[in-house]
């Protein structure tokens, strides 16, 4: 029997509809009665100038009065305007026209407000008001983040903490998510990473993009030290080293936290097949109290098409823990002098903890600004140059970011699907010129020190307040998606809710969604208005306020018309050859492992075919072996033999020392250019003597 066709089921559905309709009517009636009571209670007398007087009939607590005001604001689209003093007057009776709506006055917290309740006609208005904000409580998932501070701040802002399997509005993750997560995201959901942002967050990809832009715009992209990607650019780096006597800093292509970084004056010590990033060392940085430092500038990207970038006005300045001296062969191994990474310098005993802004190994950007002002530097011009570096760095990867975004999110028409906080590491030279060192896609939000708490907590709070997750109505979007799926399954005729793919991007496993262009522009205008009104301590640098700057940066958007991202160059061909060799090596290694595994299996099969001994014989052999092991004692150790062995070892060491065998082998490897990083670390004194020109084979 089909239950849906029964009279009982139909009766239940009818009662449910009746109950919902009754609840809706009661809610509307309560709202209208509450509004009428508020207006009748708070309307002054007929006199033009009359002070408010409290009476038992109208005694309302401030909290309840605020709640009523919010209800009126949501239901009737009311507007509140603060008066200048606490004396409120009502307009004359003849001044109110029928078209003007209902006007009244309310006193809250010793201030007078004018209440205007008007009818809101359905129309296309791009202004952001409370009626466009979803009333449902937004949910955030922080289970993929190791920073407890993010969840605590989210709770204070009214977010509900949920698991990843629930319908969250914001997903905060410390690592790059996979394509499957992008593919399954709903139209009301946001994630704190953009697909393709790795183009500027890996050192090798950042170097490639900046070098490509430098070839096209050589005068505009002098924002980073000269960089080579080894081993692809090994020849170019060696040619530069022959004509320029410089110090070079070498970094792993995908390292972090200062691991694997070292300095050298001779590139011949680098292996021809080592994968490294080689940069010219900025030997004259700006010093404060004799220490080298860099700036951690927090940047928020809320959209890539159109590109919208915000910079936080507060950040961190990270200092080295040894006073700076220009690099020489004797101090290139002092990482506490040349590196400013917190993970490196915190291990030094000279690391300084200080609650004062003008001291410590980690300070706020406001303290750096005060220091610049005291030393007659132009702080405004300096930060204008820093903003220029950040914008150009992001624009170097903008075509990839735009393509990946439209490919992953073809149907996000209400809000932007992503936002991201980036940590830009900026080094300043003695001329106050900023250089981009690296970009961190997941900057640390640990709050080990007081300065961290003063900077990072407001940063997270302002970020969650600025993102436009509240503009998306979760329930309405879910209803629209269910309706679209039902129409597609039943092939019913209706309004099309699909949109063609933007800019030719291919969707990744998602149906294409159509939206009216005017509706999409209206959603974008709402997001822009929301962001501009909730910036907090952020400042917007892209799009710039100045029209001349906007025209200047517009030339970099057409980079794909002048040079292809995938153009073949000598370096790219070299890189492809190296990738092919690495792939062949991996395949050979796998083949050897499979051969060894198969060979061992065949041997085991052959062993199984051997005739086994009888069980009684095997048990007898086992017992004998056990008894031998039980009564085993170590053999006799002769003291004379031990003394003789130690004598021979001492003679061997004396011979190596007297014949200078170690020094001869080390000098031969140095002359051939085959010294490794381990050799230089184990014998640093020999390497320094060779760098200074001594002949270690004869004397030191």
TrEMBL record:
Region: Disordered, residue numbers: 23-95, 491-512
Gene3D superfamilies in alphabetical order: ATP-grasp fold, B domain (3.30.470.20)
Highest taxon listed in the record's lineage: Eukaryota
Transmembrane regions: none
Signal peptide from the UniProt entry: none
Keywords of this entry: ATP-binding, Ligase, Microtubule, Nucleotide-binding
Compositionally biased tracts (Basic and acidic residues): 23-33
Basic residues: bias regions: 56-76
Entry GO terms, CC: ciliary basal body; microtubule
Molecular function via GO: ATP binding; tubulin binding; tubulin-glutamic acid ligase activity
Family that this chain belongs to: Belongs to the tubulin--tyrosine ligase family.
Protein name: Tubulin polyglutamylase TTLL13
């Amino acid at each position: 029997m089909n239950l849906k066709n029964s009279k009982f089921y139909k009766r239940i559905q009818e009662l449910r509809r009746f109950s919902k309709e009754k609840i809706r009517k009661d809610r509307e009636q309560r709202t209208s009665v509450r509004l009428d009571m508020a207006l009748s209670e708070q309307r002054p007398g007929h006199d033009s100038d009359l002070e408010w007087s409290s009476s038992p009939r109208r005694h309302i607590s401030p909290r309840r009065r605020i709640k009523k005001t919010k209800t009126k604001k949501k239901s009737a689209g009311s507007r509140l305007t603060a008066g200048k003093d606490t004396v409120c007057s009502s307009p004359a009776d003849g001044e109110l026209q029928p078209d003007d709506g209902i006007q009244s006055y309310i006193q809250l917290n010793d201030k007078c407000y004018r209440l205007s309740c008007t009818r809101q006609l359905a129309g296309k208005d791009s202004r952001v008001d409370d009626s466009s904000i979803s009333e449902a409580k937004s949910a955030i998932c922080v289970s993929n983040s190791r920073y407890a501070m993010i969840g605590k701040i989210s709770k204070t802002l009214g977010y509900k903490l949920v698991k990843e399997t629930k319908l969250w509005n914001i997903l905060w993750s410390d690592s790059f998510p996979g394509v499957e997560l992008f593919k399954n995201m709903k139209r009301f959901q946001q994630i704190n990473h953009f697909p393709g942002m790795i183009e500027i967050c890996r050192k090798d990809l950042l170097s490639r993009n900046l070098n490509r832009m430098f070839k096209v715009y050589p005068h505009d992209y002098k924002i980073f030290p000269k960089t080579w990607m080894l081993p692809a650019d090994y020849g170019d780096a060696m040619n530069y080293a022959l004509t320029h006597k410089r110090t070079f800093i070498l970094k792993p292509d995908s390292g972090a936290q200062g691991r694997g970084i070292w300095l050298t004056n001779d590139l011949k010590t680098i292996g021809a097949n080592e994968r490294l990033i080689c940069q010219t060392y900025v030997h004259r940085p700006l010093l404060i109290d004799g220490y080298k430092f860099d700036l951690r500038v927090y940047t928020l990207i809320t959209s890539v098409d159109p590109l919208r970038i915000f910079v936080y006005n507060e950040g961190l300045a990270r200092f080295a823990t040894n006073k700076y001296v220009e690099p020489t062969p004797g101090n290139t191994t002092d990482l506490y002098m040349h590196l400013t990474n917190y993970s490196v310098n915190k291990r030094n005993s000279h690391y300084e903890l200080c609650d004062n802004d003008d001291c410590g190994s980690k300070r706020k950007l406001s303290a750096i600004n005060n220091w610049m002002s005291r030393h007659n530097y132009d702080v405004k011009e300096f930060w204008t140059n820093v903003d220029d570096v950040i914008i150009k760095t992001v624009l170097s990867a903008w075509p990839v970011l735009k393509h990946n975004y439209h490919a992953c999110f073809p149907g996000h028409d209400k809000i932007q699907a992503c936002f991201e906080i980036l940590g830009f590491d900026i080094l300043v030279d003695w001329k106050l010129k900023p250089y981009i060192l690296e970009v961190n896609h997941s900057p640390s939000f640990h709050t080990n020190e007081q300065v961290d708490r003063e900077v990072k907590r407001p940063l997270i709070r302002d970020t969650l307040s600025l993102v436009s997750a509240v503009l998306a109505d979760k329930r309405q979007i879910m209803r629209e998606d269910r309706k679209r799926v039902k129409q597609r399954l039943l092939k019913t005729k209706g309004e099309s809710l699909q949109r063609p793919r933007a800019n030719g991007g291919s969707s990744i496993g998602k149906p294409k969604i159509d939206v009216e262009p005017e509706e999409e522009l209206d959603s974008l205008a709402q997001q822009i208005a929301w962001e501009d009104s909730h910036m907090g301590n952020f400042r917007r640098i892209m799009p710039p306020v100045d029209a001349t700057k906007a025209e200047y940066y517009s030339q970099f958007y057409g980079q794909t018309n002048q040079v292809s991202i995938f153009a073949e160059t000598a370096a790219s061909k070299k890189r492809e050859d190296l990738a092919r060799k690495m792939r062949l090596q991996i395949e050979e290694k796998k083949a050897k492992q499979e051969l060894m595994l198969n060979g061992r299996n065949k041997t085991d099969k052959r062993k199984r075919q051997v005739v086994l001994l009888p069980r009684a014989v095997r048990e007898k052999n086992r017992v004998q072996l056990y008894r031998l092991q039980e009564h085993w004692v170590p053999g006799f150790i002769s003291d004379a033999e031990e003394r003789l062995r130690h004598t021979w070892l001492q003679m061997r060491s004396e011979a190596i020392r007297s014949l200078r065998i170690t020094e001869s082998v080390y000098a031969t490897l140095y002359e051939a250019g085959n010294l490794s990083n381990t050799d230089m670390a184990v014998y640093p004194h020999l390497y320094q003597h060779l760098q200074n020109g001594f002949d270690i084979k004869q004397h030191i």
